Amino acid sequence: MNTSDPRRPYVRPMAGWWRRNPFFVEYMVHEATALFVAAYALVLLVGLRRLAQGEAAWNGWLEALRSPVSLVFHGVLLAAFAYHCWTWFRIMPRTMPPLIFGGKRVAPGVITACGVAATTACSLVVLILAWGATR
Amino acid sequence: MAETTGNGKVVRIEVLRYRPEQDEEPFLQGYDVPFTDDMSVLQGLQYIKDWLDGTLSFRWSCRMAICGSCGMMIDGEPRLACKTFLRDFPAGTVRVEALAHFPIERDLVIRMDDFLAKLERIKPYIIPKEARTLAQGEYLQTPAELDVYEQFSSCINCLLCYAACPQYGLNPEFVGPGIMALLHRYNADSRDGAAAERMEIAGSEAGVFNCTAVGYCSEVCPKHVDPANAVNQNKTRAAGDYFLRFITPKGGAR
Ligand code: SF4
Ligand code: FES
């Protein structure tokens, strides 16, 4: 509240703003999924460190990845990644200049669908390569 | 007329009131308003002012979603009161508050000085790229050149996008979605030549990089301006200008 102004305009507090509207709650949830991306980067970093420490350490890390806790954790990570990816491409049409194709603007839904399709395709390629390399 | 609304339906309109000369802080006051299915929330407020409580203050003018005066929070969402209908609140109550993120002047009236100052700063008019005499005729534009900025020219300065933008609420220095939509409207116009000047504002500390792509501004815009798109297109441009100044002798935007 501004007391130096005789008109006494009332400034409302912002505390807890993200709980005021379902749209903001969803925004916070999809932003929070970025933490899961960071968590997985940490898992990989630990793996790299174990690799540098020699074969026994590396095998220990691989063993830890196979534990039930780790499998559940990876399931959760995958779900969070999928959601993160979907929300990322959902906002993408709003973040780019108009895409003109054949004299017409490409619809936002098409841009989102292409993004999701490209991610799915890349993920499958990586999965197949990794599968082949570890057999 | 209002006093003869006679199909027996009544809606309770709860209004966040603030009378600076007597209230320390805003409070909710409820009014029972008889209504018909064709009545907007604005008409409900007008009924209150005409028949129940003449001290209630709110802004309106066109009552047809074009003047941009009647923006308010209706059940927590930024909306135009003249474009929102009382029949759409089947629970029988609707809460109306002044637009979020702006200081309340009185009741549902907000203070928009900040927006107006920013609007002036971006020079919201065409500054011709090349001077032409009358004899040379008009500045021509192709349909494709029009298409680039047309949607952004639909902005009615209603400020709903500001009430939808938490980043503006947290930091009122941020130029915000509506101003960026207007800035882009002129920068993207093929007849205009002042883009570099306006980009100083877009790329400044108070500029586009305050945006975290919440995207709600574009959801609530009653004119399908897509202000989030204007903000984000200019993130790319401002970043480009920043790096360009290292490699071009005169610099990009600065
Ligand atoms: S961009 Fe849309 S919501 Fe924002 S001020 Fe303009 S018309 Fe209103
Ligand atoms: S009264 Fe003009 S926009 Fe609602």
UniProtKB/TrEMBL annotation, chain A:
<dbReference type="InterPro" id="IPR034804">
    <property type="entry name" value="SQR/QFR_C/D"/>
</dbReference>
<feature type="transmembrane region" description="Helical">
    <location>
        <begin position="69"/>
        <end position="89"/>
    </location>
</feature>
<keyword id="KW-0472">Membrane</keyword>
<feature type="transmembrane region" description="Helical">
    <location>
        <begin position="27"/>
        <end position="48"/>
    </location>
</feature>
<protein>
    <submittedName>
        <fullName>Fumarate reductase subunit C</fullName>
    </submittedName>
</protein>
<dbReference type="Pfam" id="PF02300">
    <property type="entry name" value="Fumarate_red_C"/>
</dbReference>
<dbReference type="InterPro" id="IPR003510">
    <property type="entry name" value="Fumarate_red_C"/>
</dbReference>
<keyword id="KW-1133">Transmembrane helix</keyword>
<keyword id="KW-0812">Transmembrane</keyword>
<keyword id="KW-1003">Cell membrane</keyword>
<feature type="transmembrane region" description="Helical">
    <location>
        <begin position="109"/>
        <end position="131"/>
    </location>
</feature>
<dbReference type="GO" id="GO:0016020">
    <property type="term" value="C:membrane"/>
</dbReference>
TrEMBL record, chain B:
<dbReference type="Pfam" id="PF13085">
    <property type="entry name" value="Fer2_3"/>
</dbReference>
<dbReference type="GO" id="GO:0008177">
    <property type="term" value="F:succinate dehydrogenase (quinone) activity"/>
</dbReference>
<dbReference type="GO" id="GO:0051538">
    <property type="term" value="F:3 iron, 4 sulfur cluster binding"/>
</dbReference>
<keyword id="KW-0816">Tricarboxylic acid cycle</keyword>
<dbReference type="InterPro" id="IPR001041">
    <property type="entry name" value="2Fe-2S_ferredoxin-type"/>
</dbReference>
<keyword id="KW-0004">4Fe-4S</keyword>
<keyword id="KW-0560">Oxidoreductase</keyword>
<comment type="subunit">
    <text>Part of an enzyme complex containing three subunits: a flavoprotein (frdA), an iron-sulfur protein (frdB), and diheme cytochrome b (frdC).</text>
</comment>
<dbReference type="InterPro" id="IPR009051">
    <property type="entry name" value="Helical_ferredxn"/>
</dbReference>
<feature type="domain" description="4Fe-4S ferredoxin-type">
    <location>
        <begin position="144"/>
        <end position="175"/>
    </location>
</feature>
<dbReference type="GO" id="GO:0009055">
    <property type="term" value="F:electron transfer activity"/>
</dbReference>
<dbReference type="GO" id="GO:0051537">
    <property type="term" value="F:2 iron, 2 sulfur cluster binding"/>
</dbReference>
<dbReference type="GO" id="GO:0051539">
    <property type="term" value="F:4 iron, 4 sulfur cluster binding"/>
</dbReference>
<protein>
    <recommendedName>
        <fullName>Succinate dehydrogenase iron-sulfur subunit</fullName>
        <ecNumber>1.3.5.1</ecNumber>
    </recommendedName>
</protein>
<dbReference type="InterPro" id="IPR017900">
    <property type="entry name" value="4Fe4S_Fe_S_CS"/>
</dbReference>
<dbReference type="InterPro" id="IPR017896">
    <property type="entry name" value="4Fe4S_Fe-S-bd"/>
</dbReference>
<dbReference type="Pfam" id="PF13237">
    <property type="entry name" value="Fer4_10"/>
</dbReference>
<keyword id="KW-0479">Metal-binding</keyword>
<dbReference type="GO" id="GO:0022904">
    <property type="term" value="P:respiratory electron transport chain"/>
</dbReference>
<feature type="domain" description="2Fe-2S ferredoxin-type">
    <location>
        <begin position="11"/>
        <end position="102"/>
    </location>
</feature>
<dbReference type="InterPro" id="IPR025192">
    <property type="entry name" value="Succ_DH/fum_Rdtase_N"/>
</dbReference>
<dbReference type="InterPro" id="IPR036010">
    <property type="entry name" value="2Fe-2S_ferredoxin-like_sf"/>
</dbReference>
